[in-house]
Amino acid sequence: MSTTLFNLQRDHIAHLQQAYSDILTNHGFDSLAIYSGHASVYFADDHAPPFQTYGHFMHWVGLADVQHSWLIIQPEKRPQLYLYAPADFWHLPTHLPEEPWVEAFDVHLCSDKISPPLSGNTAIIGDIERLATSAQLALKADIHPEPVVKALDELRLFKTPYEITCIREANRLAIAGHQATQAAFIGAAGELDIQLAYLAASRQRESNVPYQNIIGLNEHAGVLHYQHYDLHAPKQRYSLLVDAGRRFRGYCADITRTYAGPDAPAAFGELVTAMKVLKDELVKGVAPGVSFVALHEQMHHHLGEILVANDVFKGTAEQAVAEGVTRAFCPHGLGHSLGLQVHDVAGLRHPDGTPAPAPEQHPALRLTRTLRPGMVVTIEPGLYFIAMLLAPLRNTSLPINWSLVDQLSSCGGIRIEDNVAVTESGFDNLTP
């Protein structure tokens, strides 16, 4: 661990200590117990899916796979970390890294699963419902007090310099994977082989990715959360869409790239270039005081211009937006908050914790906040040829170039995504 990163993490922990102290005091609590969570086995089985530590626990320790552990936070006192570390010859025992940040905690290694030591007026957060002791804990503490959880979510929305450094490093590692996927695509690999190339180059197991990678060739690029990998390469290579990430100390990268293949119509390559330019323009629009909803609406306006300029729509950009044409070609939001979770917390709330839902005409938008320094967001404009969304438009008189749309449908779609931090003066694109 570099000295610079340790110093940033030390400052990050000090920031959390002060912020948690203020939140607990403001809501009348003497302490807070945070449960890491634990994996549950599949129904009627003894195997469990990959596990991710509760975000508010990770916020302190940066370890994404800690289970059956507790963190006790009290104002003006050192954090108490009760780490479950049983003697086990079936699995590698849990251990803390030999890094200086550990000295900020009083660490208790526990060979058995414990209940947290509670004192005074205590709150508990985390997935405790499946604990055998959940009923007893509920008698001793306030479980998931909503005002406290909302305040902690709001705290996580604004990243410290340490957190932004971690997201930047996660991006660097992920980009190596994306470069490998492009090379595999050029080499005529299939979806599974492209996925394996990504994992190898980004140096991670599939169980460690922050979300299931989307590796879509041809029409599969038009399935927004495509969840399979064909074992064999297609005969024609029209397109590749890769939406794939990486963690570093719990923090996520979420990057998407789209490539035109050798068999793609020339018009598709031109659209990919236009969407890259659009992504860059939208990134430049990230700044303090900017409404993310307004930025999303700006995406639709520019998307209308792209449809017109590339002969997909023969009307005006304004008409394409007003008639819902751009929403049929791009049904998702411009982006979302990013951090310890890929779709990070508090994106659909006002600063006081009250709901800030997505607009009725843009129901898939995951972030409705006004941007402020410290936020990290994704910027991911898209343009897709999804039959079920375009079908209703075929029965209208709208001037859509259906022959071109049908020609492009085998390419699936386009999405370009970067991860961007909001700074005091503008933006910092964390995706190299």
From TrEMBL:
<feature type="domain" description="Xaa-Pro dipeptidase N-terminal">
    <location>
        <begin position="10"/>
        <end position="152"/>
    </location>
</feature>
<dbReference type="GO" id="GO:0004177">
    <property type="term" value="F:aminopeptidase activity"/>
</dbReference>
<feature type="domain" description="Peptidase M24">
    <location>
        <begin position="166"/>
        <end position="424"/>
    </location>
</feature>
<dbReference type="Pfam" id="PF00557">
    <property type="entry name" value="Peptidase_M24"/>
</dbReference>
<dbReference type="InterPro" id="IPR048819">
    <property type="entry name" value="PepQ_N"/>
</dbReference>
<feature type="binding site">
    <location>
        <position position="254"/>
    </location>
    <ligand>
        <name>Mn(2+) 1</name>
    </ligand>
</feature>
<dbReference type="Pfam" id="PF21216">
    <property type="entry name" value="PepQ_N"/>
</dbReference>
<dbReference type="InterPro" id="IPR000994">
    <property type="entry name" value="Pept_M24"/>
</dbReference>
<dbReference type="GO" id="GO:0046872">
    <property type="term" value="F:metal ion binding"/>
</dbReference>
<dbReference type="GO" id="GO:0006508">
    <property type="term" value="P:proteolysis"/>
</dbReference>
<dbReference type="GO" id="GO:0005829">
    <property type="term" value="C:cytosol"/>
</dbReference>
<dbReference type="InterPro" id="IPR052433">
    <property type="entry name" value="X-Pro_dipept-like"/>
</dbReference>
<dbReference type="InterPro" id="IPR036005">
    <property type="entry name" value="Creatinase/aminopeptidase-like"/>
</dbReference>
<feature type="binding site">
    <location>
        <position position="336"/>
    </location>
    <ligand>
        <name>Mn(2+) 1</name>
    </ligand>
</feature>
<keyword id="KW-0479">Metal-binding</keyword>
<dbReference type="GO" id="GO:0102009">
    <property type="term" value="F:proline dipeptidase activity"/>
</dbReference>
<dbReference type="InterPro" id="IPR022846">
    <property type="entry name" value="X_Pro_dipept"/>
</dbReference>
<comment type="similarity">
    <text>Belongs to the peptidase M24B family. Bacterial-type prolidase subfamily.</text>
</comment>
<dbReference type="InterPro" id="IPR001131">
    <property type="entry name" value="Peptidase_M24B_aminopep-P_CS"/>
</dbReference>
<keyword id="KW-0224">Dipeptidase</keyword>
<feature type="binding site">
    <location>
        <position position="254"/>
    </location>
    <ligand>
        <name>Mn(2+) 2</name>
    </ligand>
</feature>
<keyword id="KW-0464">Manganese</keyword>
<dbReference type="GO" id="GO:0008235">
    <property type="term" value="F:metalloexopeptidase activity"/>
</dbReference>
<feature type="binding site">
    <location>
        <position position="417"/>
    </location>
    <ligand>
        <name>Mn(2+) 1</name>
    </ligand>
</feature>
<dbReference type="GO" id="GO:0016795">
    <property type="term" value="F:phosphoric triester hydrolase activity"/>
</dbReference>
<feature type="binding site">
    <location>
        <position position="417"/>
    </location>
    <ligand>
        <name>Mn(2+) 2</name>
    </ligand>
</feature>
<protein>
    <recommendedName>
        <fullName>Xaa-Pro dipeptidase</fullName>
        <ecNumber>3.4.13.9</ecNumber>
    </recommendedName>
</protein>
<feature type="binding site">
    <location>
        <position position="243"/>
    </location>
    <ligand>
        <name>Mn(2+) 2</name>
    </ligand>
</feature>
<comment type="function">
    <text>Splits dipeptides with a prolyl residue in the C-terminal position.</text>
</comment>
<feature type="binding site">
    <location>
        <position position="380"/>
    </location>
    <ligand>
        <name>Mn(2+) 1</name>
    </ligand>
</feature>
<keyword id="KW-0645">Protease</keyword>
<keyword id="KW-0482">Metalloprotease</keyword>
<dbReference type="InterPro" id="IPR029149">
    <property type="entry name" value="Creatin/AminoP/Spt16_N"/>
</dbReference>
<keyword id="KW-0378">Hydrolase</keyword>
